[in-house]
């Protein structure tokens, strides 16, 4: 009898799981992907603007993993035949908007945490004499703290407020004082268990993850992330059930899994041998019942992206973009000069495109504007931040990601581990709700879940 595996969630974690399942089971297994939306990809969506392909979600992924090797996202792209389509940003600096000026982001930091305090000149003043050797490691084995708590104690407030907060805010839309060190900077958490000063811990973490010389930090797919999504769906050979949310998940008397999905008035039923759950925290907790209680409290931040197509002659600073510390008070938290950041676009005719990210954790009310008003705020604040009035865009769009980014409080990794430990055999979880944001983290999470259910199936032939 053919085995059947359900993947609930059609984002990149779920699709990476489906591809790995197909690689592990080339034949004899049916894979079904259930996605409540009518499209696959989750927060990886590519749109059009002024004749250009512009991301409506994540625009790039890390090229290397924490060990310096090729990241899981790059490996997946190569597996899907997209290796020759990988592109990299131009070697342009990024900046911080501080007090009405754009200051270049110091080089050599770890998500904004420096291993050399001399690089902070003109950006932030570190606290003098605070990062001293007290005879014990910074963290006890397995312990977790908020990033802000550790860095404030050792480097002072300005380093957190002006550098670490905007760097973390660019990725998580959250605040350093509330985000887990072990989830957001696992490499630093590991070295903090052996090193006695933050400077030494950062340097040790950087040495462990030393990049191959000449390898760019980031990569993207020429033509858009939607190509990665469609290639993964195709390679998985999965049956796709789109626009049909899974409402209930239960164990049958025979040890299989029963899924009730579709509309409430006309539900459909499937039975499968194993399940991978790759959805956000609240729907995951609902389907898991008591086993998912610890993940249910995970909070999410809402953000919006505004994209502006400006006349081709529009002059922008010689930067890839900039980040804005929360203390500046703007709704804009980051901007990417899209067409200058990505050199593969240089010879392609079209407008100058700027992507603006708006909103941080706790600022949901500030995003409650209609699209036209939000675009007006984005253009006005962007003009003020770069010190030049931008022309009216020829085209624009707003993409809202309500509840889009998890806010990992300290202890999240332990909570996720306890959820996994309480799962019955044949059920695995994956995705940002458990293993961190970023495309490589989600890909690796999905592949791990696929490995887990495959081992279960191999043992139950």
UniProtKB/TrEMBL annotation:
First-level EC class: oxidoreductase
Domain Amine oxidase: 12-453
Keywords for this protein: Cytoplasm, FAD, Flavoprotein, Heme biosynthesis, Oxidoreductase
Single Gene Ontology MF annotation: oxygen-dependent protoporphyrinogen oxidase activity
Main location: cytoplasm
Pfam families: Amino_oxidase
Enzyme Commission number(s) of this protein: 1.3.3.15
Name of the protein: Coproporphyrinogen III oxidase
Organism this protein belongs to: Actinoplanes sichuanensis
